[in-house]
Amino acid sequence: MKFAFFAYRDWALNIYSFLETEYDIDLYTPPVSYSNLKDYRAMFFVGWSWIVPKEVVDRIDCVCLHPSPLPRYRGGSPLQHQIMNGEKESAVTLFKMTNQLDEGPIYSQTSFSLDGTMKDILERITFLGLDSIGNLLNEFEKGATPKTTPQKGEPTCYKRRVPEQSEITLDTIKNCSAEHIYNFIRALGDPYPNAFIKGCDGKKLLIKNAELEK
Question: What is the mean pLDDT of residues 72-84?
Fold first, then answer.
């Protein structure tokens, strides 16, 4: 039984590197031509940022890993928005993709802490994502149709952030708390576009780490 895995971020590729030793699973990285896909039992999209065509979603079970407690934080840059909003906890959610963005029924949802650096957070997502996807692959291999539950609660949606939004301006410093700025910086840790300030020469000073005084 063959599966497909779509990824391009390092943490997602790390999940694949573990899974490929146990399952018959093909890796796809951008750019992808969906017209040439094999007839897979299921396809997994992990850290994926592109729309999957309707004809693919309608034909094959497509599973997406979304790092938020859906239906909250649908859309782009979910980790960044959660951290910047002061959330303390998130979730690794596996859901069945539909033709509506991040609206499909949920296979599993596992909570994790948003404390620490972006590296810490991505390591948690990697570990939980590997476990959750592995469990789902086992069900598919047994010939089962994994159970799903509808998303419950009030949805919130966010747009994908762009690098220009990573700037810390004088207005930010004047109007935001130290904790807010701290969360802003760590939400934009590598591999994301780092927080920065601009000098009078127009050059950017990247801020990769910060520490909040207790």
Answer: 97
